[in-house]
Prior knowledge:
By secondary structure, the chain is mainly alpha-helical. Helix content is about 50%, strand content about 5%.
Amino acid sequence: MDLTLHADYSLRVLLYLTEHRDRPVSTQEISEAYGISRNHLVRVVQTLQAHSFIKASVGRSGGLSLARPPSEINIGQVVRKTEPNFRIVECFHPETNTCRIAPICKLRGVLNESLKAFLQVLDGCTLADVAPSEGIAPLSNFLAIQKANLQPSISSQR
């Protein structure tokens, strides 16, 4: 099962904002830090703001920040609000299901239990639980190193 980029980027934005709780952060900064499209990020930010995970302020000193402490932001809730569907297989959507064995298949029940277990694990975690901890290189330092490693050196461009 793959989470959509929307859910993935939502979690990344929240992690970035967790590290930078001391100041508002621009979408441009997050976009550059992760190397992802700012346009896509704007939609992610709108979703996070609509569900009160983050707040946005405008103006010269504006930007994004967490709407509440990381310990109060549940990862399961974030994924449920940012993932458009959890249809692991076709038969999870009765209106479009064309599976011929659906009436006798027991796989759907197993997959449904697996999905419940997946979400239950996420429900047991907060943003504070998954953010890089003290003693580990800050996320922004790690991202800067990764970005530098992706940049071709001057000598390799000759």
